Amino acid sequence: MVAQQSLSELSTDQLREMVEALLRTAAAKDEQVTRQSTEIRHKQALIDKLTHENALLKRLKFAAQSERYSAEQRSLLDETLDADLQAVSDEIEQLTSAAAAPREKQQPRRQPLPANLPRREIHHEPESTTCGCGCRMKRIGEDVSEKLDYQPGVFTVERHVRGKWVCTQCETLIQAPVPAQVIDKGIPTAGLLAQVMVAKYADHLPLYRQEKIFGRAGFEIARSTLAQWVGSCGVQLQPLVDALKEEILTHGVLHADETPVQMLKPGNGKTHRAYLWAYAPGAFEGMKAVLYDFCETRAGEHARAFLGDWRGSLVCDDYSGYKAGFATGRVTEVGCLAHARRKFFDLHAASKSQVAASALQQIGALYEIERELRDLAPDERQRIRQVRSKPVLDALHRWMLLTRQKITDGSATARALDYSLKRWTALTRFAGDGRLPVDNNHIENQIRPIAIGRNNWLFAGSLRAGKRAAAVMSLIQSAKLNGHDPYAYLKDVLARLPTQRASQVGELLPHRWQPPLKNHD
To answer: How far is 225 from 230, CA to CA, in rounded Å?
Structure first.
């Protein structure tokens, strides 16, 4: 063995090999140390950022008491600050838990749940009560923890009973482990948390309204507590939302749209216009999902940041914010024929224009063909479009060009024609690709619930609150698209998330999730 030889007995080649092996080992260790140092610096920078945000939120919470807000503004701001504070606290705890030894969190002392609420006992016992020494173990007691559950209109209490078993010979004590929860040592079950999240983000009920509803059901839950639950759930659900984004970006055709929402600016009691962007796989892609992205502005940089290095065809309207993405060559613009049709529809509604009527008739013929092709395979759809749709498009283009020459610049008719003529390549791209939809109506239908919800929740309380709302609404709306009850979906997901492996979180995405089998015992 070389290791057993003295250095003087080694040949030059053997010495060279030993030196090279030592250098490789040293280089690998240096690389590992450098990587770990980079990770530590990145994690510490994130902790510092969150700690600073935490301090700002606390200052805002106490400063808000002396600022002028309407009753609705103050209520939403209180809810938002409590939820944001809890979310920041949870994120800091996640970052520090891996680096530091776990320490027992000091839990706030809480009142026992009302004795009059119905109770359901759930027993947790060891799989085996035979000790390692071979003796039968004896049950010497139990630990009981109570969780508050809720089904619309009715509170119940889950009593989790964990028996204590001891071996009388060797004094070994065993007990079934505490079931993992989204909120560790908290009172809410996954069902109660799902109810709060669905009521807030699907039914658009602010927490102060939910507080009153729960009070009528027999147990008052302070809105500050509800807000903390919302903040914690938002943090726990974020990995699932990140996985949904990754899957959406694997598709070669995407829809995109955006809608304005108001965001409160703490400090002056005023709101400013923020935007909720929506993205979804193409209507013919097979995956039913939508992802919302809350941003402070409508700047095109937000769309480019979301898409990153994605390559494919983007179905969108004529908003200039998308143009820079098309200029890179990675993203191909696909126009929305419904937007072009809308220009002529509005013109006809306002003036009964014959030009508009003729345009609507020709565009209508294209939609008649599309209705017949809806369920066909992409190749077959493309073939029939070339045979039937392309001649209609060519005739429509010629008619628009001839008609435009007769129309005065600046008129409403000229503007309607110019919209289509300037975007003709993008508007007709669907004719040459069977994967492409004819319009952007698919994503507009997914953004409509947001527009309806604005009438109830009025504005987002902060940027973090807006992003949390966008994330949860992405899961809720995607669940609806797949025919799931959002409450049943979130209840099961929140119950499984604490023990779900990070590598398998994709199994909980709405398009893969299956309702749990009911127990018929």
So the answer is: 9
How many Cβ atoms from other residues are within 10 Å of residue 448's Cβ? 11
Domain that holds residue 362: 248-447
Q: What is the pLDDT of residues 228-281, one digit of tens each?
A: 999 999 999 999 999 999 999 999 999 999 988 888 766 556 777 889 999 999
90 neighbors 292 (Cβ within 8 angstroms): no
- 86 within a domain of the structure (yes/no): no
> What's the rounded Cα separation, in Å, for the pair 481 and 152?
23
Residues of 22-34 as b/e, b for ≥16 C-beta within 10 angstroms? eeeeeeeeeeeee
CA dihedral 488, 219, 189, 93 (to 10 degrees): 120
Count of the separate structural domains present in the chain: 1
Query: Is residue 32 assigned to a domain?
Result: no
The pLDDT, as a whole number, for residue 96 is 76
pLDDT for the residue 102: 46
Strands 119-124 and 138-151: unpaired
Q: Quick check: is 321 in a domain?
A: yes
What angle do the packed helices 463-481 and 486-496 form, to 10 degrees? Answer: 110
According to DSSP, residue 388 is labeled: I
Q: Answer yes or no: are the C-beta atoms of 311 and 434 closer than 8 Å.
A: no
Of 259, 261, 252, whose CA–CA distance to 307 is shortest?
252
* Phi–psi pair at 225, nearest 5 degrees: -70, -45
pTM, to two decimals: 0.79
* Cα–Cα distance, 424 to 429 (Å, whole number): 8
Asked whether residue 112 is domain-assigned, the answer is no
Mean pLDDT of the chain: 84
